[in-house]
Amino acid sequence: MSTDLRLVLFDMDGTLVDSQGAITGAMAEAFAEVGHVAPTRDAVLSIIGLSLDLAMAELAPGADGPTLDALVEGYKSSYMRARKAGGQAHSPLYPGTLDMLAALNAVPEYLLGVATGKSQRGLDAVVAAHELTSFVTRQSADHHPSKPHPSMVLTAMAETGVAPEHTVMIGDTSYDIDMGRTAGVHTIAVDWGYHPADQLNADYTINSFAELAPLLQRLWKA
Fold first, then answer.
1. Which CATH number fits domain 19-89: 1.10.10, 1.10.150, 2.40.160, 1.10.3470?
2. Does the keyword Hydrolase apply (predicted)?
3. Which helix (H) or strand (E) holds 111?
4. 36-61, pLDDT tens digit by residue?
5. Does 222 score more than 70 pLDDT?
6. Backbone φ/ψ region at 202: left (φ over 0), alpha (ψ -120 to 50), beta
7. Cα torsion for 204, 218, 186, 198, to the nearest 10°?
8. 26 sits in which H/E element
């Protein structure tokens, strides 16, 4: 493994993009299609980050297998229709995201990546819509067990050749932070996401992306 490179991994929903409106809307449509009452906004936000099959099982605990499958497919269809219609506005970037990514990408030792509960199709669509070209490793729910299993982080480190002590996982939910912790990397919580940051027990918490680069410099100089 390289002793010079540093790997900065980001969650997507609730960390880089504010997709809560898109997610809650697609959930409401999916539940309506199977004749179920839609979950509350708080319930939906609580499961963001999980793979869809696990998320639906949490939101509809009494549903049988075919109903859960229908919920998953209904959500995917609704989300995709809304994404195609909405473009960038469907899942807008949080303030400062592009400037932060550009600044980090300009540091020769830094490699940037994504570890997300989105499908590969959904991840690729967000990357294309916002021209997020700086990610050298992209881990999605299609190819891994659901968060908080560490597979996404471990695979990203294997692909880039970066050691755990030189890797950070940045996210907004307990699933992100637990995943990073289990993988043995540094964890950074953002306080604008979908789970209360003060309950995540991350190694560090930031209040804006302007704080990230100085934090990383301190972290890796220690």
1. 1.10.150
2. yes
3. strand 110-115
4. 999 999 999 999 989 899 999 999 99
5. no
6. beta
7. 0
8. helix 20-33
